[in-house]
């Protein structure tokens, strides 16, 4: 039976920093932390030599309020290739020394981590494929080969949207779509917000049209500038960190307000003051399979929104007229004209029905059910043939119930 005092490990390997932007990994793994000891292993940070001329490989481990332990490998500068993988492998094996692998879950967001973790034993290995990372700016040319290795290792593959599911479902025997979900109660705070406006937004006039999220190669910056020119009396508020692109390349207009990154807790206070939202995604390889988490978040906040035709926004949100779809800046301006004047009662009722179908709690519960099913099937197989090697070549012990998984 489960032992709450000694929960099983869920070891996550991620290309994202836990404290960067709250998105899919944080929503899911903070819920997982109620059943597991969650170790969120980030990509390494390279440090300069200490006073003795060397930097010893080590792990910085720090807890977060939601129960997750963030693990950051600190490595000497200059490490790469096999040497990098060797040191990462040594650190992770030391981290897990003495822990029971028979009920361990390995959870991958980045296929690159298989280079140093392929030999780790686990009850279940999950690949939560939230994005097509190989299409992102600066992606390693080895990423596709690493993903093939991860498909071979994984017991379960989850996808972050339906378009990604369609692209990956033939590559593994157990692929399951889990599109972006919603913490509806959090963003509903925007609809009842009666506090002071954020200081950097308070003096911006109306109408306001807003965007929040990471600002990178997935944003159509030309469209943003054109839209600002088409509607000079509107104010466009854009929240989020700028990454992988030069901030000097962002369009600058008197009615464009780049307010920088904001905390997850602060977002409802900003959205409460917006008259509409926009999602100016570029149509490129990096956005081909995205399922923007912000789509249901806009809706839960009561902010009507227009998006470029991203596949996982068009279906289901555009098809149900919950989100307006626009191909270009002029079309987006016209769609926003309508949103700023139309009654919202019927729209809000339809939004409520749509959002009632999903939540991060339900998503995690469904994922956990699949994990437990795989663990149970493996345990039955080991009990029936305790001396037989598993398909990964490891002699399995007879564990009747992987109850911690």
Major beta sheet, specifics?
9 strands, mixed
- The CATH superfamily of the largest domain appears as Glycogen Phosphorylase B
Beta strand count? 15
Order of helices and strands: EHEEEEHEHEHEHEHEHEEHEHEHEHHH
Poorly predicted spans: 388-405
Structural class: alpha/beta
What CATH architecture of the largest domain would you give?
3-Layer(aba) Sandwich
Number of domains: 2
- What would the principal axes of the Cα set say about the shape? globular
**Overall radius of gyration:** 23 Å
Strand content: 15-25%
The percent range for helix content is 25-40%
The CATH topology of the largest domain is given as Rossmann fold
Structural notes for this entry:
With 405 residues, this protein is of the alpha/beta class. The chain has helices spanning 24-32, 81-96, 114-117, 143-153, 162-168, 184-188, 221-230, 267-271, 294-300, 311-318, 329-341, 345-355, 360-384, and strands at 9-13, 37-41, 45-47, 58-63, 69-76, 105-108, 124-129, 156-159, 175-177, 208-212, 235-239, 256-260, 276-279, 305-307, 324-325. It folds into two domains: 9-181 and 360-384, 3-Layer(aba) Sandwich (Rossmann fold); 184-355, Glycogen Phosphorylase B (Rossmann fold). It has 13 helices and 15 strands. Helix 9 links the parallel strand 13 and strand 14. Helix 1 (24-32) packs across helix 13 and helix 7 (221-230) crosses helix 11 (329-341). The chain is globular. It starts with 8 loop residues before the first strand and ends in a 21-residue tail after the last helix. The relative contact order is 0.12. The model is unreliable at 388-405 (pLDDT under 50).
């Amino acid at each position: 039976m489960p032992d709450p005092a000694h929960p099983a490990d869920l070891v996550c390997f991620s290309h994202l920093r836990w404290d960067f932007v709250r998105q899919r990994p944080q929503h899911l793994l903070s819920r997982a932390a109620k059943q597991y000891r969650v170790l969120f292993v980030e990509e390494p940070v390279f440090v300069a030599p200490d006073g003795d001329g060397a930097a010893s490989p080590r792990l910085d481990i720090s807890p977060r309020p939601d129960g997750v332990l963030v693990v950051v490998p600190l490595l000497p500068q200059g490490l790469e290739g096999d040497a990098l993988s060797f040191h990462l492998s040594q650190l992770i094996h030391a981290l897990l020394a003495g822990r029971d692998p028979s009920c361990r879950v390995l959870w991958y967001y980045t296929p690159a981590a298989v280079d140093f973790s392929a030999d780790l034993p686990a009850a279940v290995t999950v690949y939560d494929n939230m994005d097509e990372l190989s299409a992102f700016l600066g992606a390693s040319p080895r990423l596709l080969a690493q993903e093939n290795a991860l498909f071979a290792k994984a017991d379960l593959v989850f996808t972050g949207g339906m378009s990604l599911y369609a692209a990956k479902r033939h590559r593994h025997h157990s692929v399951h779509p889990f599109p972006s979900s919603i913490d509806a109660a959090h963003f509903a705070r925007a609809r009842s917000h009666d506090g002071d406006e954020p200081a950097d937004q308070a003096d911006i006039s109306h109408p306001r049209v807003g965007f929040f999220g990471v600002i990178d190669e997935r944003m159509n910056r030309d469209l943003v500038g054109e839209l600002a020119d088409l509607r000079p009396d509107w104010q466009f508020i854009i929240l989020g960190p700028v990454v992988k692109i030069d901030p000097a390349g962002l369009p600058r207009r008197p009615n464009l307000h780049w307010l920088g990154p904001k905390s997850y807790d602060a977002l409802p206070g900003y959205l409460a003051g917006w008259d509409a939202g926009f999602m100016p995604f570029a149509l490129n390889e990096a956005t081909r399979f995205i399922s923007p988490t912000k789509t249901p978040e806009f809706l839960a906040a009561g902010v009507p929104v227009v998006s470029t035709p991203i596949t996982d926004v068009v279906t289901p949100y555009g098809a149900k007229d919950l989100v307006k779809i626009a191909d270009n800046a002029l079309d987006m301006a016209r769609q926003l004209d309508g949103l700023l004047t139309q009654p919202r009662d019927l729209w809000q009722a339809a939004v409520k029905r749509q959002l009632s179908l999903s939540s991060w709690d339900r998503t995690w519960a469904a994922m956990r059910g699949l994990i437990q099913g795989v663990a149970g099937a493996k345990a039955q197989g080991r009990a029936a043939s305790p001396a037989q090697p598993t398909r990964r070549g490891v002699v399995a012990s007879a564990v009747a119930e992987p109850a911690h998984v």
